[in-house]
Design brief:
- The structure is a single chain.
- This protein has helices spanning 33-45, 50-59, 67-77, 83-96, 101-104, 112-123, 136-155, 184-193, 199-208, 212-215, 264-277, 293-318, 332-343, 348-355, 360-367, 372-385, and strands spanning 3-8, 13-21, 24-30, 223-224, 231-234, 237-240, 246-249, 258-261.
- It is mainly alpha-helical.
- The strands form three sheets. Strands 1-2-3 form a three-stranded antiparallel β-sheet, covered by helices on one side. A three-stranded antiparallel β-sheet has the order 4-5-8.
Length: 388
């Protein structure tokens, strides 16, 4: 934050504005406190950059909508977009543009460097996991949203050119979405630590690979337990509307509409829940409400991991043998399911359908490295090609 120091002289009192810009102490002197206060506010609102503050003064005379107003206009003009996606766009506007120097700028005044400064500010924002920064993929999504809005600005005649073009975004360096593949021994240990009420649900996730929002929206009518090959039909999922309220909508993509074959053991494990559900949800919280990600994490997932960690601490204290288990996310059960299917011999095409991926390219990009046959054939080809 900039600060103001009053300087009393023999002839007049002046006001020195002090701030740090790029790690260097800077100052400027003004004849009145009111003027110094104005520039202090400008510096505080523009990241302690005098150039940005001066540009904000220059931009004040430029007419037209601000970037935040443009983003809302862009969202209002979108067609074929569900309420859940509209909600994500509007939350992105509130979280990453409202109150920022870029968000306040007139659309016509935004320059390439203004977007770069916004990107750098976004890089410094914390990610969902404590101690991490925003993922490169997340930043790319927000940048793409901004770029699309500037394309709309060109079409509406607000400005010429897209200042987002040509910006090199940071690449992912943390291993994609940090997928965690649990072994069967690790999952068994976790399963034993789970609250008995939630064990069927988490076993169902790892047995089927369904997304959390798909599994928690299942009704009894979605199961064919007694069919020659038991299946569960995925034709809906929980979503959030523009206000953040939950509703049951369509699955994530067209390929997400699918029938997933169930192993006999999985079918028998869920049979009591399906038969007891009537016309309601198959998987619920203890008091019967829908399973939301936050409540499920706090009431079932986190307590189980704490129980495992406490057991590991106790084993260390007493000297008993114990193999600690590295934490996983609920979504990692989907990745774990994929790894188990590949280990069992399922090819990527079958796995892609089972997981409801929009394209087999998605499945290949995430799980091809787990294919033992691919590794073996790759090694054989390399050996033949490099033979001397």
């Amino acid at each position: 934050m900039a600060s103001i120091v009053e300087k009393r002289g023999k002839k007049a009192t002046t006001y020195m504005l002090r701030w740090r810009e790029n790690g260097v102490q800077e100052n400027a002197t003004f004849p009145t406190r009111e003027t110094a206060e104005v520039w202090k506010a400008l510096l505080d609102a523009n990241g302690q950059s005098m150039a940005a503050a001066q540009r904000a003064v220059d931009n004040a005379n430029i007419s037209g909508p601000t970037v935040v107003q443009l983003l809302h206009k862009h969202v209002d003009l979108l067609t074929g977009v569900g309420g859940d996606q509209l909600g994500r766009y509007k939350r992105a506007i509130n979280h990453h543009f409202v109150g920022t120097p870029l968000g306040r700028m007139p659309v016509a005044a935004v320059a390439h460097e203004d977007v770069i400064l916004w990107v750098k500010g976004m890089q410094a924002k914390p990610g969902r996991v404590n101690g991490t920064t925003m993922r490169a993929k997340t930043l790319a999504n927000h940048h793409g949203f901004l770029s699309a809005a500037f394309t709309t600005a060109e079409l509406l005649g607000y400005r010429k050119g897209n200042p987002c073009k040509g910006i090199k975004l940071p690449k992912e360096v943390s291993g994609g979405d940090q997928m965690r593949f649990m072994t069967k021994e690790e999952f068994r240990a976790l399963d034993e630590a789970l609250d008995p009420h939630f064990r069927p649900f988490f076993n169902f996730l790892v047995d089927t690979g369904l997304r959390f929002g798909e599994a928690t929206a299942l009704l009894a009518e979605d199961f064919e337990i007694d069919a020659p090959v038991p299946v569960v039909r995925v034709n809906k999922a929980w979503k959030e509307d523009e206000s953040g309220a939950y509703y049951v909508g369509t699955p994530k993509t067209k390929r997400s509409w699918r029938s997933v074959p169930l192993a006999p053991s999985t079918a028998e494990a869920v049979r009591p829940l399906v038969e007891a559900a009537g016309h309601g949800l198959v998987f619920t919280l203890k008091r019967g409400g829908p399973m939301r990600s936050g409540a499920t994490y706090n009431r079932a997932w986190e307590p189980a991991w704490k129980k495992l960690e406490e057991a590991a601490d106790e084993a260390k204290r007493t000297g008993e043998p114990f193999t600690p288990i590295r934490r996983a996310r609920i979504h990692d059960l989907r990745h774990t399911h994929a790894s188990w299917m590949i280990e069992g011999g399922m090819d990527l095409f079958q796995l892609s359908y089972r997981l409801g991926h929009q394209s087999t390219l998605t499945t290949d990009g995430r799980y091809a490295h787990l294919m033992p046959s691919s590794r073996q054939s790759g090694a054989a080809i390399a050996a033949a090609a490099l033979a001397r």
